[in-house]
């Protein structure tokens, strides 16, 4: 018995200490899905020899954690999530500027004016419908925001909470910028009658629609494809004809983070052709013009986009979410 | 006269306390142990709760109730409270009924396959709580097994919400009711029932007028405990609550999603009220009304029920067993399915991903659990020893405090830990220590309760003999007490290991990039509706728990038989 205990103690000690020894470690919050983060991080580790320890959180949750940990930052980098959430982070003082050296032009709306965040992909908000469900209900896939209000979709639509999910907040901000604030909330109240339930993560509705637990998911185009058809689910993606909002997915450095130099290396890597090409696996549209776009991915010129103001969306976040909670009651 | 006697006894008590104090001061080891334990209980049990309370009532350094006013004035913020209470009551009733059914069938009705039913009725304890929610979706969701096969998708069982939660929580928590009721029924002397039968009562009358009234305290305590467990549950409602928000999940969303620490803390305090009330009722009111009728005299052979009733009970137990096996069976099946809902070919890829994606979570969980478990076990035994054998000031408080973590919902504790240990000098966020401490102080009551029960059955004289021969408290504890309570120590170890491996509600607040846990990872998978992967992860987790329990069981067997000739039961 005593031997077992001492052996166990040694094993535990070794296992405890070993990850700390050797490689440099970068700490990260990733707002990309676990499965997707897992596609990129090992490649970064292979390319740079830097080890990454990461936690997957929805981007609203990342923001909450960074604000809570402001006095004692646990991570150096926030990877993924719509730019408006990064803009809220800048407003909350959780980020620090970094301008990566680029040999190509990044559009002005794809980075912060002070480089407090940098964009690395594009994606548009769309609807993913389960084709089996559509067939059974005998309706075509929704092609407008108004279509979603049809009684036949009662209890069939899934979306995330706007406060936990960057995806869902993008939807809210889109509606507000398109319809005006009061009209947008009126619209969402009607939409609420058709919502089956709210999720925490913005891409979760896609799988639920794929499963058939709900008929329609509202989410980002790349998630609709990567977690829908590409996985083998019967999902058809459609986009609202009135116009839709979009995200520039961002990365930002955390103010006071423990490993700023490693974090900068990560930003440089994420914008490289190699890293941008990896995103084909998840059907994201890369921003680096030399990178390739995956077949079937939805590009900006294929859908009608509104003139989305991410800065305004980021700055209004707290207020809009407060109003959303009290009017929708979730 | 009475008054004088009262004064006398009061004097005696205070004299004894003084004497105790003097004796303790004479033993520096003992005094130091008490000091360290009291201090750490205060720091890691009381202080986080104080911080939660403080967060909810202090704003800009001033006392205010406006957070509560805000919360309670809005209908949609009040709803989680009503929902939680309703769910708690329903689960308490249903779970107690099922638990009583199994306990009665085993202890009184002499049904066949008793060992099998015993295993079934305790199995849900070792599985992570949310596995049942996962199973419910796989089985009764819109694309669930039963929904599709039996009803061809014509009928929606609406499991997202109250119905589904009552189902899964009843199955998750009825084992507690079963264990309580089994203990109670076995403590009722069958001679009582026998004699009323002999006096001409029918078997139904015997049940109604003897057995049932004697099990009332047990029933009451089971109802209260299940009510607490349901209110504290987080893993199931976060997956299955749909549009039926409950307090534990709302408190979590307020903090992790809205950065609303005061609102989250206030919801936690609101959650604490009913659970603490139920816990105190159970401990101080129901707990004292035990009708133990076992006298030590040999009892006649087991009293039984008539064949019809036995068949009925057997049928009910089998039906319930069927439901439980079906639920876990669906999880097993689901873990081999390529893509639930679209492609049902069988595959092993999800098990590969357990080690590919889940490897580091498994490693972290095992390391943290194996550091926390022995510490929890030893600390539990020391507290039990002090509480049962020693006299000192604050003893009652130590007992109550160590039990407190049991009654406080994990969500409240988790929030308390991030509030209390996020700033120097107690800067623990992001470390392994915060998770280990949380494990230890969440589970210490399990060990100490087992230790107290074991110690109360062991005559003090053996330890006194050692003390008289010159051994100090520390030496007596190590050489005499500890070996005597080894079985209790190991069962405390086993149970706290299980709780470490399956915990979610509190630890979800303190995991970090450096230290993450498998349960949190599984929850993420379920939330993302990666059902098959989540199923595979859960089964691997259950398998690990079973293996470790087996090892501990072997350890108990060896130590117990070699040292005391004591055969552990069941």
Description:
The complex is a heterodimer of chains A (330) and B (570). Chain A is of the alpha/beta class and 330 residues long. Chain A has 2 domains: 2-122 and 247-297, Periplasmic binding protein-like II (D-Maltodextrin-Binding Protein, domain 2), CATH 3.40.190.10; 123-246 and 309-328, Periplasmic binding protein-like II (D-Maltodextrin-Binding Protein, domain 2), CATH 3.40.190. In chain A, 41% of the residues lie in helices and 19% in strands. Chain A is built from 12 helices and 11 strands. In chain A, strands 1, 2, 3, 4, 5, 6, 7, 8, 9, 10 and 11 form an 11-stranded mixed beta sheet that branches. Chain B has a domain at 348-570: MetI-like (MetI-like fold). Chain B has helices at 2-26, 28-57, 66-73, 75-107, 114-126, 131-140, 145-149, 162-186, 190-198, 203-214, 216-232, 235-240, 247-258, 261-286, 307-336, 349-356, 359-389, 395-407, 410-420, 432-456, 460-468, 473-484, 486-502, 518-527, 531-564, and strands at residues 58-59, 62-63, 337-339, 343-346. The interface between A and B is large, with 58 and 55 residues.
Helix content of chain A: 40-55%
Q: Please give the CATH architecture of one domain in chain B.
A: Orthogonal Bundle
What is the makeup of the main sheet of chain B? 2 strands, antiparallel
Strand content of chain A: 15-25%
Assign the CATH superfamily of the largest domain in chain A: Periplasmic binding protein-like II
Total helix count of chain A?
Answer: 12
Q: And the CATH topology of one domain in chain B?
A: MetI-like fold
Number of extended strands of chain B = 4
Our Rg estimate of chain B from Cα atoms comes to 25 Å
As a percent range, the share of helical residues of chain B equals over 70%
Shape of chain A: globular
Question: How is the topology of this model organized?
Answer:
The complex is a heterodimer of chains A (330) and B (570).
Chain A: H1 2-17, E1 25-30, H2 34-48, E2 51-56, H3 59-68, E3 77-82, H4 83-92, E4 95-96, E5 118-130, H5 131-137, E6 157-160, H6 166-179, H7 181-192, E7 195-199, H8 204-211, E8 216-220, H9 221-226, E9 235-238, E10 246-254, H10 260-270, H11 273-278, E11 285-286, H12 310-328
Parallel strand pairs in A: 1-2, 1-3, 6-7, 6-8
Antiparallel strand pairs in A: 3-10, 4-10, 5-8, 5-9, 5-10, 5-11
Helix pairs in contact in A: 3-4, 4-12, 6-7, 6-12
Chain B: H1 2-26, H2 28-57, E1 58-59, E2 62-63, H3 66-73, H4 75-107, H5 114-126, H6 131-140, H7 145-149, H8 162-186, H9 190-198, H10 203-214, H11 216-232, H12 235-240, H13 247-258, H14 261-286, H15 307-336, E3 337-339, E4 343-346, H16 349-356, H17 359-389, H18 395-407, H19 410-420, H20 432-456, H21 460-468, H22 473-484, H23 486-502, H24 518-527, H25 531-564
Antiparallel strand pairs in B: 1-2, 3-4
Helix pairs in contact in B: 2-14, 2-18, 2-19, 4-5, 4-8, 4-11, 4-15, 5-8, 6-15, 6-25, 8-11, 9-10, 11-14, 13-14, 14-19, 15-25, 16-25, 17-18, 17-20, 17-23, 18-20, 20-23, 21-22, 23-25, 24-25
């Amino acid at each position: 018995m005593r031997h077992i205990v001492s052996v166990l103690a040694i094993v535990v000690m070794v296992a405890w200490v070993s990850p700390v020894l050797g490689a440099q470690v970068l700490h990260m919050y990733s707002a990309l899905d676990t499965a997707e983060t897992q596609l990129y991080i090992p490649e970064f580790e292979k390319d740079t020899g830097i080890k990454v320890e990461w936690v997957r959180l929805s981007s609203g949750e990342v923001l909450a954690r960074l604000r809570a940990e402001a006095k004692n930052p646990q991570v150096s980098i926030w990877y993924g999530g719509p730019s408006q959430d990064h803009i809220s982070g800048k407003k909350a003082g959780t980020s620090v500027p970094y301008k990566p050296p680029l040999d190509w032009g990044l559009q002005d709306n794809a980075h912060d004016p002070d480089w407090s965040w940098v964009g690395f992909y594009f994606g548009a908000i769309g609807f993913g419908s389960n084709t089996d469900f559509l067939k059974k209900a005998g309706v075509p896939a929704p092609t407008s925001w108004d279509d979603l209000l049809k009684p036949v979709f009662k209890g069939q639509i899934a979306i995330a909470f706007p406060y936990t999910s960057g995806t869902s907040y993008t939807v809210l901000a889109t509606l507000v910028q398109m319809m005006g604030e009061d009209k947008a909330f009126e619209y969402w109240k009607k939409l609420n009658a058709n919502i089956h339930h709210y999720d925490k993560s913005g891409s979760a509705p896609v799988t639920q629609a794929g499963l058939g637990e709900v008929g329609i998911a509202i989410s980002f185009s790349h998630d609709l494809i990567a977690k829908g058809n590409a996985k083998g689910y019967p999902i058809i993606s459609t986009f609202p004809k009135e116009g839709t909002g979009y995200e520039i997915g961002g990365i930002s450095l955390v103010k006071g983070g423990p490993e700023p130099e490693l974090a900068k290396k990560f930003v440089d890597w994420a914008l490289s052709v190699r890293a941008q090409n990896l995103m084909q696996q998840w059907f994201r549209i890369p921003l680096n013009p030399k990178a390739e776009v995956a077949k079937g991915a939805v590009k900006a010129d294929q859908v009608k986009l509104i003139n989305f103001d991410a800065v305004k969306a980021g700055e209004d976040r707290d207020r809009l979410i407060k109003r959303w909670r009290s009017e929708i009651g979730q | 006269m009475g008054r004088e006697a009262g004064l006398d006894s009061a004097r005696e008590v205070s004299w004894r306390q003084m004497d105790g104090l003097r004796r303790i001061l004479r033993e520096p080891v003992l005094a130091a142990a008490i000091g360290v334990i009291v201090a750490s209980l205060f720091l890691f049990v009381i202080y986080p709760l104080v911080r939660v309370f403080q967060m909810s009532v202090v704003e800009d350094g001033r006392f205010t109730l406006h957070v509560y006013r805000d919360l309670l004035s809005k209908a949609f913020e009040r709803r989680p409270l009503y929902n939680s209470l309703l769910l708690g009551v329903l689960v308490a009733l249903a779970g107690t009924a099922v638990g009583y059914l199994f306990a009665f069938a085993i202890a009184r009705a002499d049904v066949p396959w008793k060992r099998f039913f015993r295993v079934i009725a305790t199995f849900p304890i070792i599985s992570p709580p949310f596995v049942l929610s996962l199973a419910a979706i796989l089985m009764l969701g819109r694309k669930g097994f039963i929904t599709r096969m039996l009803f061809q998708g014509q009928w929606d069982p609406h499991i997202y919400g109250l119905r589904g939660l009552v189902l899964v929580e009843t199955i998750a928590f009825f084992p507690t009711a079963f264990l309580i009721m089994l203990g109670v029924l076995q403590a009722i002397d069958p001679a009582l029932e026998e004699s009323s039968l002999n006096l001409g009562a029918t078997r139904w009358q015997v049940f109604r007028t003897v057995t049932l009234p004697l099990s009332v305290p047990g029933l009451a305590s089971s109802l209260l405990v299940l009510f607490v467990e349901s209110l504290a549950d987080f893993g199931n409602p976060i997956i299955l609550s749909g549009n039926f928000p409950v307090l534990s999940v709302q408190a979590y969303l307020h903090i992790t999603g809205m950065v609303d620490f005061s609102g989250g803390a206030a919801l936690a305090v609101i959650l604490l009220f009913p659970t603490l009330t139920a816990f105190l009722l159970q401990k101080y009111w129901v707990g004292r009304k035990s009708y133990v009728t076992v006298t030590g005299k040999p009892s006649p052979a087991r009293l039984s029920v008539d064949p019809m009733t036995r068949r009925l009970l057997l049928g009910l137990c089998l039906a319930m067993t069927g439901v439980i096996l079906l639920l876990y069976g669906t999880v097993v099946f689901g873990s081999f399915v390529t893509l639930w809902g679209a492609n049902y070919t069988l595959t092993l890829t999800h098990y590969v991903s357990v080690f590919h994606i889940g490897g580091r979570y498994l490693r972290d969980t095992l390391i943290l659990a194996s550091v926390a478990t022995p510490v929890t076990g030893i600390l539990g035994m020391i507290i039990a020893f002090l509480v049962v054998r020693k006299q000192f000031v604050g003893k009652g408080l130590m007992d109550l405090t160590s039990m407190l973590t049991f009654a406080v919902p994990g969500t409240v504790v988790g929030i308390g830990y991030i509030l209390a240990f996020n700033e120097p000098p107690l800067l623990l966020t992001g470390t392994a220590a915060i998770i280990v401490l949380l494990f230890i102080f969440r589970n210490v009551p399990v060990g100490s309760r087992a230790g107290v029960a074991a110690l109360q059955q062991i005559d003090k004289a053996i330890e006194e003999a050692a003390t008289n021969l010159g051994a100090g408290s520390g030496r007596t504890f190590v050489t005499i007490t500890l070996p005597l309570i080894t079985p209790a120590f190991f069962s405390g170890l086993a149970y706290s290991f299980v709780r470490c491996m399956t915990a979610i509600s509190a630890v979800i607040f303190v995991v970090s990039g450096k230290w993450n846990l498998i349960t949190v990872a599984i929850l993420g998978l379920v939330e993302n509706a990666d059902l098959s992967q989540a199923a595979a992860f859960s089964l691997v987790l259950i398998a690990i728990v079973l293996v470790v329990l087996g090892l501990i069981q072997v350890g108990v067997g060896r130590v117990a038989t070699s040292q005391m000739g004591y055969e552990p039961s069941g």
